[in-house]
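Encode chain A's predicted structure.
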Amino acid sequence: MDAVFPTRNDTWQQVSNVQRRWRAIRSDFGLDWVTPHTFRKTVATLIAQELNPEVAAQQLGHTSSEITRRFYISKPDLAADASALLERLGKAPGAVGTDDGRPPQEGADDRIKGE
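Encoded structure for chain A:
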């Protein structure tokens, strides 16, 4: 097996030298939070999105895609922004949850959807 980043003499890098360079590069660019595990999770997420979680698990050497799904594939941090829809829901005449005390009107759901 050939080294990915060989020395000038075409030999393997010393682990301590790689770690020292890696810390310096991260520090210089303000990327102290980036670790080899960060790259591993990024690769798993990209492969899962473009192909599927099973292929991502194979790439990482996992015997089951469950571990890959649980710990490596990133999940969205935020839900989709539904605030405009919820605002329309609150303003629809007779909509459930309004304070006017009237029962919901026929077709109120269609007005909420903008139909």
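The chain has a mean pLDDT of 84.
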